[in-house]
Amino acid sequence: DAGVTQSPTHLIKTRGQQVTLRCSPKSGHDTVSWYQQALGQGPQFIFQYYEEEERQRGNFPDRFSGHQFPNYSSELNVNALLLGDSALYLCASSLGPERNTIYFGEGSWLTVV
Amino acid sequence: KQEVTQIPAALSVPEGENLVLNCSFTDSAIYNLQWFRQDPGKGLTSLLLIQSSQREQTSGRLNASLDKSSGRSTLYIAASQPGDSATYLCAVRLNYGQNFVFGPGTRLSVLP
Q: How many whole angstroms separate alpha carbon A3 and alpha carbon A29?
């Protein structure tokens, strides 16, 4: 039973570029949340997707956008990258948006230079 | 706005010691609190979940307590082992179905 999988695991982008990160939820899960974790800090909530719609959103600018596909996988897009966007981006999935048990992926390390 | 803090930021202990990690949150009206473990460069693994109506949860050598009125939780690790070395994060949920608010974590090193 595959857990939450994320791709790519590492990537380097130049300031001003755009990036897309991908997440496949754990088998049977239909809800995906994204978190940003800067070095030495706890994860910060970006947004949550359920039934292909953004259900909740944290305090992140519109440069951060997402999408959920009919197979429940999700993408996180970040436009006009800033140096401060360098972080570990974590995806978490659950069965339904209100379940206690969520599972995190290994994350995608983004470095903006 | 809910804020979560963790003390200490880092801790180094010899193998075999019992230790306590602390978590504080500013808004006591939480739905539940969860402790996670994060190995370097890796994702998060859930350790213990405490509902707002509970006082503690135990799993093996781990025991987590919750005092909502004072806005505090502790994670007790008994007989620590080098394999326990990791960052430990606590996170709270304000309402049913809401996202997590995480603390900054405590980086634990257990020396053989």
A: 10
Question: Among candidates A103, A105, A76, A95, which has minimal Cα distance to A30?
Answer: A95
Give the one of A33, A48, A107 whose C-beta lies nearest to B43's C-beta.
A107
Return per-residue pLDDT of chain B as tens, 112 residues. 889 999 999 999 999 999 999 999 999 888 889 999 999 988 999 999 998 999 999 999 999 999 999 999 999 999 999 999 999 999 998 876 678 999 999 999 999 9
* A61 contact partners, CB below 8 Å, separation of at least 6: none
| For A88, nearest residue in chain B (alpha carbons) | B41
Q: Report phi then psi at A18, rounded to 5.
A: -115, 150
For residue A80, the distance in angstroms to the closest alpha carbon of chain B comes to 25
